[in-house]
Amino acid sequence: MTKDLKIILSKLKYKDDAKVVEQIGEQTQQLQSRMAGIRRKIAILSGKGGVGKSMTTVNLSLALARQGQQVAVLDVDLNGPCVPHMLGIRGQQLTMTPEGALPPIGPLGIKVGSMDFFLGDLSPVRWNRPMDLSPVWLGTLEMTVIREFLADIIWGEVDYLLIDLPPGAAADKPPAIASFIPDLDGAVVVTTPSEMAMDVVRKSVIYARSLNIKIIGLIENMSEFRCPGCGTDSELFESQADEMCDALDVPFLGRIPFDRDLTRSFDKGQPLLDSAHHTIARYSEISNRIRDILDFEKLIAEKL
Hints:
Elements: H1 3-12, H2 20-35, E1 38-45, H3 53-66, E2 71-75, H4 83-86, E3 95-97, E4 100-102, E5 111-114, H5 116-119, H6 139-152, E6 158-164, H7 173-180, E7 186-191, H8 195-210, E8 215-226, E9 233-235, H9 241-248, E10 252-259, H10 260-267, H11 278-303
Parallel strand pairs: 1-6, 1-7, 2-5, 2-6, 7-8, 8-10
Antiparallel strand pairs: 3-4, 8-9
């Protein structure tokens, strides 16, 4: 366990129970101050694991950065963080200062907060030891660590903060984020075109709305297979995403093919940055739609 991780854990063990509320209150004020410098805050979620949610988060962040936006990513998957690996910055660490923690900087100036920076070579294991000895986080401790990330990291002036949530099994994360960030702009939902995945994602949309989290739109990932030889796209499943979006009144943001070039590059920690690449161009189109939706909502809100 790294020294910085021990520092965070020591802060979670309040020496005087009578001051717990006071300390949490002070941290909440600091969190609000940090979030005030961030213009847009978007959660990326899916009720189904394995749909490429982190891949979507990383590529949307890169697309926004290519458009001249200042971008930050918070990797909320404490047990299986992978954003730093995808961005090629695994092994870096947060820099601790008296004012807070400076996050590592990834490609195109993207700021990243992730538990991966603390774990080093540790592999997540099922918890069977005292909480401060295990790299797996449970229950309220997870919520506290997430609040620490939001409050203690010096995010600075940022246009977009993308929050990569773990799979839907971690149902406590969306309400935690909604409570920590009351002005959350909404969530982008990721699915694959398989019927099972969409059934679970449909429930996630309903769940998010029950928490008053707006749904910005839905992305269908791995909707097609892009041939590495001829460059043509072929359907893998019979998609029903359009019908589901119509039924739920959710904007459909676009389809992303299963692209071997993309998969290989991120597996190697060498993010694909070529804006002319077919799949990268699709992420740019989707990021533009997200920006248009949020700008339109802001315009309407100002006129009401």
